[in-house]
Amino acid sequence: MAEELRAIARRWLYTTNHKDVGILYLITSIFLFAAAGVLALTMRTQLSVPGNTLLTADIYNQFVTVHGMLMIFWVLSPLAFGFANFIIPLQIGARDLAFPATQRDELRFFLFSGVMMILSFFFGAAPDLGWTLYSPQTASLFTPTVGFNLGAGALILMTVSITMSSVNFLVTMLKMRAPGLKLRYMSAFSWAILITIFMMLYAFPSFLAAVVLLYVDRAFGTVYFSSIQGGSLLWDNVFWFFGHPEVYIVLFPALGIIADVIPTFARRPLHGRKYVIGAMVVVAMLSFAVWGHHMFVTGIGIVSTKLYTVTTIAISLPFDVMIISLIETLGMSKLRLKAPALFALGAVANFIVGGITGVFLASVALDYSLRGTYFVVAHFHYLMVGASIIGLIGGLYYWFPKITGRMYNEKLAKIHFVISMIGFQILYFPMFLLLDMPRRVVTYTPDTGWGLLNLTATLGGFIFGGAQLLLFYNLYRSSRVGPPSGPNPWEAWTLEWALPSPPPPHDFDVIPTFLADGSIRFGSGPSLPNGAGHSEIGYPNGSSVLVGSSSSHLEGLSPWPILMAFAAFIFFLGLTIGKHANPQPVSYQPFWPLIADGVILGVISLFGYSRETFTVHEDTHVESWPFRQVPNMKLGIWTFLGAEVIFFGVLIGSYFFVRTNDAAWPQAGTLFDIRNGFAMTLVLLTSSLTAIMALASARAGNRSGLIASLGGTLVLGAAFLYIKAGEWFSLGASNVFQNYSLPASSYFITTGTHGVHVFAGMCMTVYLLANAIKGKYVNGDHTTLEHFGLYWHFVDIVWVFLFPLFYLI
Amino acid sequence: MAVSSTQVQFDSLFGLFTYLAFAVGIVVFSFLIYLVIKYREKPSSRQPEDTPILGKAPQTRGHVRTVLLTLTLSTIIIVPLIAGSFGAIENILTPPQNVCQGCAIEVTAHQFYWQFTYPNGTKPYQIRDTLRVPVGEDIRLNVNSADVFHDFGIIGYDIKTDAIPGRTNTIWFTPDVTGNFTIQCFELCGTGHATMKGILMVMSQAAYFSWYNSTVVH
Amino acid sequence: MNTNYLYLIIFAALIGETDIEVNLSSIIPAYNEYVTVLLGIAGTKAILIAMFYQHLRYEPKSLSTWVIVGLVIASLLMGLSFVQLHVGH
Predict the structure, then answer these.
(1) Is C26 found in the same domain as C9?
(2) Residue A256 pLDDT > 60, yes or no?
(3) Superfamily of domain A664-809, CATH level 4
């Protein structure tokens, strides 16, 4: 018995199998959905009658903030990614995700970030200024609580997890599809996930930069968000540049599920499939150009407000195409109204209401009345709950048989649907009528007349929340005693239904092949065995074992991911929980025991990682347009650099923003010694030369040239940091920056972040140098050097811009 | 009943949006419900010919005509929405240059109250919580904040603007009836956010100006 | 051409451009013009590093397209914020 428990614990703690990871995401997010839902019901109870005293304003503000953050970051996306992890490799016939090593980290970082967010309640107060964290009320001056810093740390950890996922999934979906699975044959759900990840890749770095800047402001006294040159509008811009794509990020997976489910249950293909997918792509691109509608009444000027009105109203057009196509799919169909279909259709219905009311809010003129009211709350809950959650629940019922091998109770599910939909309308529709009531208020007075609508909404909330108990019960009980479902209870066409339910650990015995006429070949035959074309060891029976790791979940266990994530968690705790004796203006108080533990554990984990073989699948027979000739790792690195471009773009953009708003900025030459900047530029450019020479030496088999070049790169990197450190010390000590000013903030933050990247590069150089001395890289195995170079040259390019921006203008 | 110029403008634009929203909503919902009812599986249902089955990618279905029709209709619907919005925002963002003496008031947001400053004579008159204005006159408000990001809104007037430290945002309106209206903060600014209220007291012109003149310090 | 030789030429160009940047303020006195040209030169340096050191010139077009997509999105942030700050107040 103990042996069994140990085995179970080992499996779930250490698993690297995409299906197990998916299940863990699903369970975690369902649990957090319940937790955030309880927060919501408590708030609704508080608001049910005027003048209620169940919650104080202090607690209410924390509840409303954590409710929002949990739902958006720790429920909606992970629920979607639970499905993505489980289903996508099956739907596209990939053997695994592209980077199994990072895949294991993503889940654990995510788990610990959730723990950190919940811990924040216990350190003074959780973040309490809305999930949108507007400035300058988030500055230390106004919100000195330590819990806030923990919340920031949690968000940073979560974003790290998300960025790793984005790179991993993008490369997987672009480069590891089954033979013949052209992009146009990919299912709607897969497309939706691909587009979601694309948005995630470019939106989250902006959020990361914003939260890092906020944390640095609070801990180290920089003034980006507390100054009037930066402050409210700077935060608004960098937050909402992320925030708007984010709302589509939490919506699209559900839309993808709906677009898979409706055709399956209507027994007809999706109407206008390529236009639906095209519409999703258009929305994804446009989503980065509408964020100003969250700033309509901030005073950005008539040109900008008109511009954003147009882009935001226009973004409704592709959604119109999607919804009409989904409805048209029902035409001349044979519609089985089972639970997944009911939830999909219910989601469409709610989406129509939510989308139409979005058009109201897209008008800057109407926004001058509707901004900050419950009309907005109703609008986004119709979409985030009504479309997204309802759609995701549809996905839960849809894929439950595949994941567990058992069928849920259909009757109970239908009851769940009816009660949920009714409860939902009673909960949220009254909020449209509360278009004079401000958001995020702990209470209101009787004379407003808002009491009846609020009471109605609260009743609806309890009905809707209570109905979810039916879901939890149904899923739990059916997973234990539900009738076996068989591989394809819905008679669907997507590839996951070709596998047994639940699928075996290694997924397909033989990866399916798509033929030119659209037919799909399964099973034995001239199609390719799992792992064929791969350069690792292949066995005659078609299965393959990758050197150093395994495709079986039982053997792919590794303790390092959870240790690494735990190390990061401890490290961030150490950074954020220290309470400074005198917290104005600098509140940073490192808690060294935890920081040291985190670093030590992190180093041990990294060492453990390096002992494992980091295998990146490179198959030759998979479908990989348009990146057929680009190896997976290289594509992964370039994808990651794309995220870095946004990250540094926000840092540099913030510098521009505050500088533009500050008429009294010191002139060029007064703050910095141009000679320092010039020297650093020369040093770093030369290090790029030595880096490329290292690669050239390795290619030519020239071991001594390689070692000299790598050594040179290391020395030059150190020289750069040495000059930079000297400059930091002399600027910090002198009075040339009046303390904590904007020029100081922008300089230290931007060059500091860049310096951290240089340091990371130097750590990599040390590792490469050690290997080079051992004789590696000169025998045709130089790709690692190439990949390092990509990163190093990027860091150089960032400096190429920082030099003129700080020293010369 | 007209309460203020801003409310009248909002109601008419909101009315346009609501009318079109219901029209679109009713059409789309009817279409959805009709298809669900008509094509739900019954014993008499025919099996479609292009049912996607495992082993074959689904057939293409649908025509670009539907997309073009959807886009065209959508564009036709949104054009008046955009045009109406443009007209309205131009009105909102061009406050009158000349307002009466005592009709240009500075509004400052604090945690957690509103402060109003009437520039008059040598000493601007500051008052908390109650904003007095005369009915029938154009009123111009310059809104800013002394500490954090707030939002100044007048319930019933359908107008608000953000109160941001370091910035001044101007809104304007013409009150149409006398009476008291609630001013409230519409951006979460801290623990006192819900209680950050004020009163817009719209007075008759005679009453207002006699009050205003009594505040002037010579 | 011998690639090592190419790398050295690119390096020389980068150093040369840096030299120009440092002296540019005396060549172009008008501030806005100066900043524009300065950032333009920085941009060309970045392009040289990307094309030759990061090897983009010799990679499949799909990869450089992928890179450009990221740059376009970053420029949306910069561009629309620029409009917000400078246009139509």
Answers:
(1) yes
(2) yes
(3) Cytochrome c oxidase, subunit III, four-helix bundle (1.20.120.80)
Nearest CA among B179, B157, B36 for reference residue B92: B157
Inter-chain contact C89–A653, Cβ cutoff 8 Å? no
DSSP 8-state secondary structure symbol assigned to residue A75: I
Q: Do B39 and A136 touch (CB under 8 A)?
A: no
**If you count them, how many residues does chain A have?**
809
**Quick check: B98 and B134 in contact, CB under 8 A?**
no
Q: Give me the helix-helix angle, A451-481 and A18-47, nearest 10°.
A: 150
The per-residue pLDDT for A456 is: 97
Which pLDDT value is given to residue A618? 67
Region of poorest pLDDT, from A162-171, A608-617, A763-772 = A608-617
Q: Name the residue type at position A104.
A: R
**pLDDT exceeds cutoff 70 at A530:** no
Do the domains at A2-481 and A664-809 have one common CATH topology? no
Closest chain A CA to residue C40: A801
Burial A548-573 (b: 16+ CB within 10 A, else e): ebbbebeebbbebbbbbbbbbbbbbb
Considering the domain architecture, whether residues C12 and C41 belong to the same structural domain is answered as yes
How many beta-carbon contacts under 8 Å exist across A and B? 290
Could you tell me which residues are beta bridge partners of residue A301?
none
Question: Is the same domain home to C49 and C64?
Answer: no
Q: What is the pTM of this model?
A: 0.93
Q: Which residue of A has its CA nearest to C47?
A: A797
A366 contact residues in B (CB cutoff 8 A): 10, 13-14, 17, 85, 88
Interchain CB distance below 8 Å, A365 and B10: yes
Q: Which residue has the tokens 């904003």?
A: B131
A335 contact residues in B (CB cutoff 8 A): 36, 39-41
The closest of A117, A87, A96, A115 to A26, measured between CA atoms, is A87
pLDDT at A585: 60
Domain spanning A2-481: CATH 1.10.3720.10? no
- Is residue A235 a contact partner of residue A210, using CB atoms and an 8 Å limit? yes
Return the pLDDT at A578. Answer: 75
- Is the ipTM of this structure higher than 0.90? yes
Give the residues across from A538 on adjacent strands: A544
Residues C9, C30 share a domain? yes
- Which H or E run includes A132? none
What does the block give as tokens for B114?
A: 């509103």
